[in-house]
């Protein structure tokens, strides 16, 4: 980081404040506002739209240019030339693995895919119709009770063991959530299969048959994991970092990330896309829903469109669209009614002045939702699959943060509540207080 200075003049101060400016390797310069507190100021940035919360070497996004890079490699290159686990290695270790390193890494991950048998008993406490994301939050958090052999977060080897365990066990747990909802027996992982293939085997296999996983579908699943692997300081990653900054257990931190991912403005969007398509119901209704999305007085939004960072196009969506076409062709679903609505909606929105002007393009979740629906994955599992792919990103950021001296995350606020006031005795209070909740 090279250091220049910004000079900030503020009312009531004798002299301007000098603030350091840092240059990253690429991207906008960053003003270090740390010195403002001692002068009696906080900065105010709801939604963190212009705040860098940390320094990182993992992922870079240029939303305007539609660029996403992991460790310097554009996402479309990784999607074309690597597979998910190779990109996991890259995210965790900073470099692409050699042949030997990759073989070793795959072997380590494969040997951690099973979960403790006691985990199966946790599932018995969940209703059959529990949302799988609710189960994932609980079960991943519960993993923190199982691994006391590697909880020294100051030890890089311990951190790596937790990383391997999480990457390996997430597909197993995700498939268990699905099997629980179906009332089917859990499938054990098959260590002869690849990462995505194994996941599909645990999802759709049963002990009664040894159905083979379609390689086109396995490749698509691998791409879904890869395209979701990391996305810089998004809401769930920032949550994992914030939780981890207190020194918390890694499994508990990832559970916090899963909880954040669940919301429809973040990872829950892929599920929301399918609910929206079902609500639209027929291509004839599309115009009505596009009008609703444009109506300021209507809270309805086109799910799977728009992004906080990408204001040009989402590079992941480009790759996902190609994969989507391959999967639909392979499964002979080019004329599925719901998928037809999706295709028409995409076309109309891409040509509509409102969406063009506001730079609202289909995002990765629009296409990943369609692929997963075509594969036969129920909509409430979509975000679980996102969480499975994103786990490596969360854990890479957690690991990176803990590799540096640790400072607990502690944002400040713009307080607009009461100033200090006298306590009123209960008998002296009015019969009805003015409403104070929104
Ligand atoms: N449909 C209709 N209008 C929209 C949409 C949409 N999907 N998204 C944004 N707008 C409008 C919004 O009403 C606003 O209009 P105006 O300027 O007139 O007030 C303008 O576009 C800017 O929207 P914003 O909410 O200020 O933008 P944001 O950057 O805060 O929000 C977003 C980004 C992704 C939350 C939002 O676009 C959205 O809600 N999209 C639908 C949900 C979705 O698909 N989320 C998945 C994101 S990708 C997965 C991930 O990375 O987590």
Task: Tell me what you see in this structure.
The chain is mostly helical and 438 residues long. The strands form 2 sheets. A 3-stranded antiparallel β-sheet has the order 1-2-3, with no helix packed on it. It binds carboxymethyl coenzyme *A. Carboxymethyl coenzyme *A (CMC) binds next to loops.
In terms of topology, how is this protein built?
Blueprint: E1 2-8, E2 17-23, E3 30-31, E4 59-62, E5 67-70, E6 73-74, H1 75-81, H2 84-93, H3 99-110, H4 118-123, H5 132-142, H6 156-182, H7 195-204, H8 215-227, H9 235-244, H10 250-261, H11 269-280, H12 286-294, H13 315-330, H14 337-351, H15 353-357, H16 364-375, H17 382-402
Helix pairs in contact: 2-8, 2-17, 5-6, 5-10, 6-7, 6-17, 7-8, 8-13, 8-16, 8-17, 9-10, 9-17, 10-17, 11-14, 11-16, 13-16
Bound molecules: carboxymethyl coenzyme *A.
């Amino acid at each position: 980081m090279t250091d220049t200075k910004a000079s900030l003049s503020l009312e009531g101060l004798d002299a301007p404040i000098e603030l350091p400016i840092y240059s990253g390797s690429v991207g906008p310069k960053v003003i270090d506002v740390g010195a403002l507190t001692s002068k009696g100021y906080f900065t105010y940035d709801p939604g963190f739209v212009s705040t860098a919360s940390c320094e990182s070497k993992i992922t870079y996004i240029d939303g305007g240019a539609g660029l996403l890079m992991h460790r310097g490699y554009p996402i479309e290159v990784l999607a074309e030339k690597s597979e998910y686990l190779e990109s996991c290695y890259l995210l965790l270790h900073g470099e692409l693995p050699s042949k030997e390193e990759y073989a070793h890494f795959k072997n380590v991950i494969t040997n951690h895919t099973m979960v403790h048998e006691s985990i199966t008993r946790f599932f018995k406490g969940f209703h059959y119709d529990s949302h799988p994301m609710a189960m994932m939050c609980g079960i991943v958090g519960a993993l923190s009770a199982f691994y006391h052999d590697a909880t020294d977060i100051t030890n890089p080897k311990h951190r790596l063991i937790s990383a391997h365990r999480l990457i390996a066990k997430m597909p197993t747990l995700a498939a268990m959530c699905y099997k629980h909802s179906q009332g089917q027996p859990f499938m054990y992982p098959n260590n002869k299969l690849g990462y995505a293939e194994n996941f599909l085997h645990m999802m759709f296999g049963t002990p009664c048959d040894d159905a083979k996983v379609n390689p086109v579908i396995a490749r698509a699943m691998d791409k879904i994991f890869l395209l979701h692997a990391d996305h810089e300081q998004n809401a769930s990653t920032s949550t994992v970092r914030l939780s981890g900054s207190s020194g918390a257990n890694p499994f508990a931190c990832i559970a916090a990330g899963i909880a954040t991912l669940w919301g429809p403005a973040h990872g829950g969007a892929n599920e929301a896309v399918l609910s929206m398509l079902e609500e639209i119901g027929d291509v004839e209704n599309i115009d009505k829903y596009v009008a609703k999305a444009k109506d300021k007085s209507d809270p309805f939004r086109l799910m799977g469109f728009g992004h906080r960072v990408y204001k040009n196009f989402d590079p992941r969506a480009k790759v996902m669209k190609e994969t989507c076409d391959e999967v639909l062709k392979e499964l002979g679903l080019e004329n599925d009614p719901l998928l037809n609505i999706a295709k028409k909606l995409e076309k109309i929105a891409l040509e509509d002045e409102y969406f063009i002007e506001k730079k609202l393009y289909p995002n990765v979740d629009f296409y990943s939702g369609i692929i997963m629906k075509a594969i036969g994955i129920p909509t409430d599992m979509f975000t679980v699959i996102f969480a499975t792919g994103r786990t490596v990103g969360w854990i890479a950021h957690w690991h990176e943060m803990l590799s540096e001296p640790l400072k607990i995350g502690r944002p400040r606020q713009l307080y607009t509540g009461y100033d200090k006031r006298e306590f009123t005795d209960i008998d002296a209070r009015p019969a009805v207080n003015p409403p104070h909740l929104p």
